[in-house]
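Archive maintenance. Older records in this collection stored only the sequence; we are now back-filling the structure field for every entry so that each record is complete. The fields below show one back-filled record exactly as it appears after the update. Entries are processed alphabetically, and GNAT family N-acetyltransferase is next in the queue.

ARCHIVE ENTRY
Title: GNAT family N-acetyltransferase
Organism field: Hoeflea prorocentri
Length field: 167
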Amino acid sequence: MPQTIETDRLLLSAPKLSEVPALFSFLGNKVAMKHTHCDASLKECRRRIAVHEWRRRHDGFAPWTVRIKQTRVLIGWGGLYDDPFDPGWGIELAYYFDPSAWGNGYATELCHAALEFSDQRLELEKVSAFAPPDNSASNALLKKMGFEYERFVIEMERNLYTRRRQA
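Back-filled structure field:
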C-alpha cells in the first residue's frame, strides 16, 4: 500500500502512535461518537489504533488518518477494516470525523478513495457498512456510495449495508 493516498482535498495515511492524542480528541468525544463506540481513555484509543495497525500488516489495509491536504490538519480516521473487536462481519467501511469537519463532504471523499482501493487494489467482492437508523447522514452517504440496505441488526441497533465490487 502506498504511504499516502491523495484525493482532491485529503491525505490518507496509516496512523502513527504519536497521532493518538489528536485522534482521541474526536474518537473519545461523546458528541462526535454519539452513533458509535467512544474511546473512554487515551490508553483505549492507543490500543484501538495499535490493533488496527497490526491488522494492516496482516491484511494489507486498515483505517487511515484523514488530513486536509492544504493545511495538514488531522480531521478524521476511517477506511476499510476487518473489525478485530467485533469479528465475523467481513470487511467493513467506516469513517469517524472531528465535528469541526462535519458537513464538508470529507466522508464522501474518504469513502470514494476507500472503495476505489477496495475495487482496484484489493479486488474485494463485497464490503459492508453499518449505520444507526437515526444517523440520516450516514445512511444517505452509504446509499450514495452504492451500498444496499440488507437488514437491521438488532443486537447492534444498526442498519447493515453491503456493496458489491464495481468493475
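Update note: The mean pLDDT is 95. The chain has one domain: 4-164.
Entry marked complete.
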